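Researcher: Structure prediction, please.
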Amino acid sequence: MSMPLSWWEYQDAYHNSELCIVGAGIVGLSTALFYAQQRPKAKIVVLESGNRPSGASLRNAGFACFGSVGEIADDLKHSSLEATIALIAARRQGLALLRKVQGDKALSFDACGGYELFFSEEKEAAEQALDLLPKLNQSLLEAGVFTKELYRIVRPSNLPQNSFKGLHLAIFHAEEAALNPVHLWQSLLHKCLSLGVRYQPGVALTALPEAEDGKGYLCSCSGVEFRTRRLVMATNAFAHYFLPNQVQPARAQVLVSAPLAMDLPRGTFHHHKGYNYFRFVEGRLLLGGGRHLNPQAEAKLEANTSEEIQHYLQTFAQEKLGIDGLQVAHRWSGFMGVGKAKMPKLEKDTEGRVWAVRLGGMGVALGTEIGQRAAALCLED
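Model: Predicted structure follows.
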């Protein structure tokens, strides 16, 4: 049963709010953190429709990545090399800022490196990646993104603890890592609360707040109505409800196996332009992907899994990873915000609202810096 707030609760959480942030994921909480650091006396309220974020911040697979060569090669079909290098640079800078703000221990950060895998039937895609490799490495060096060559070829015989079937080629990138998404979010929330930020879970907007002359924005939510001077929309995939032509949801399905009785390689792993990804966690396989099988079916905000993709993932584990008789302990899905443009949407609209959405499946890498920039946009006034 929903109960009305007391006067004291309303006054503490909502009255005279200087900044309201809609969405308590990585971007939303990062925005609150950086704003509070600059305006320590400001009343900042962060709204979350559920008890905790339900998009990607807590439901991702724990990859600190910035793009495999196969994924980058696919991006270059729709974007210039300069724009692609700029996006990789933004992801790397974002990860560096995340680590600086949170600290590796709080993130359970594991600098394990990453591998992109090409199997025997993917020799053409492997050749395309190999053709791009020298130019990509050189462009990243010339742009100052890295000080040494990032990507290097690894032959299957040199891959540690390789039980993969029919592996043709791997490309290694030492800068990739793994982390614990829940530890990241809890650390970020703790920092915000310590600065006086009000976190209000279970509060959903009933409409997009409109600007009122001289009065800020009127926010109508489930069970409460209030005004705020500044507004940030940090809802990522859920921005689709307000910007259907600019942000599309993309459901990502993941499974975790029961403990495996085999030696497991260390690292993060990508396959098929980044659509498939896996790593080993506490002796278990964590495997996600398959969205490319039916992109239209996965372009929805339904928190379930599909038999088609879950079967594909289990078959992939057996036929490619050499894991027979896989027993699944847990399954879930999360939601990315994607669009025609790979760069996030970070801008003020004509009403002065700040949009910080469409992270393109790279929220771990981009979220902290996008939050920092969103806070800076708010501080301009």
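Model: The longest helix spans residues 81-102.
Researcher: Thanks, that helps.
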